UniProtKB/TrEMBL annotation:
Keywords, in A-Z order: ATP-binding, Cell membrane, Membrane, Nucleotide-binding, Transport
Residue span of region Disordered: 254-283
Native organism: Paracoccus broussonetiae subsp. drimophilus
Family named by the database record: Belongs to the ABC transporter superfamily.
PROSITE patterns: ABC_TRANSPORTER_1, ABC_TRANSPORTER_2
Membrane topology category: Peripheral membrane protein
Name recorded for this polypeptide: ABC transporter ATP-binding protein
Amino acid sequence: MTDDIILKVEGLKTWFDTPKGTVKSVDGVDLELKRGEILGLVGESGSGKSITGFSILGLIDKPGRVVEGRIDYRGEDLRAAGPKRLRALRGDRIAMIFQDPMMTLNPVLKIGTQMIETVRAHRKVSRAEARARALAALAKVGIPHPEERIDAYPHEFSGGMRQRVAIAIALLHEPDLIIADEPTTALDVTIQSQILAEMQKLSQEMGLAMIWISHDLGVVAALAQKIAVMYAGRIVEHGPTAQVLDRPRHPYTRGLIDSTPMANRRGEPLRQIPGAAPPPLGRPEGCPFRPRCPRASAECLHEPSESGTDNHGWRCFHPMEVVA
């Protein structure tokens, strides 16, 4: 593994044992992320995107378990790392931004208190130095008057500002990798645009690698250089964002694009993907998208292998034709 590759995930499987059977939430995921790259991980709710992120960080609780695969962070297999090593990495070298900032923020503690404790959990520095680092992080994400706002409580911030604080906490130690789990979904489009621009800028300036989990193709198109489309626990298509969105090969990717509102289809009804994603314990045989796919055939009763190139790959027996 070269120094440029921050994260490499191979054959990741995360399953949940339930009284009714085993739920294969992540079923053989491969990802690779280099320094300064942003990867958009997209798909419908329940496709396994968040579980993939939690698995990388070692945040899967029972009855869940990572049953197979390798998670390499800069050449170190995180699956072989003990709890102490994982605690040292989380929040320091690998950080996570949650969809709801109140999952990060304690409502009864001032912002400054929480940020200072986060700094001192990983660095032996004075409170004054930790506070200075917290102020710098707040300024970096665009919090106005950070010297005043650092002594405020979370409820004194708007939703957009709370999310900026959560991002600032993730940036405190200038990590190599951030996993962002739909952090702008609940925000209005103006604030969302500001945060996306800020994250893109920080990634370029700091060489920060990022996995941006989202169901919104518009957000991913504006932010990420690479995209991985996930369905029923598997990556069904991946490649450079512009190439995948302009020339999708998997019918599911095509369906996601067609169901997105576009200015050039004003007045037309939105196209929909028929049916619904399979239930956790009712995954179909063969290709998981087969029951909803207009191109399905008897061949799709078998598991499709990956086709394409290292640059752009897909799992489909009947890929979409490329329109010149």
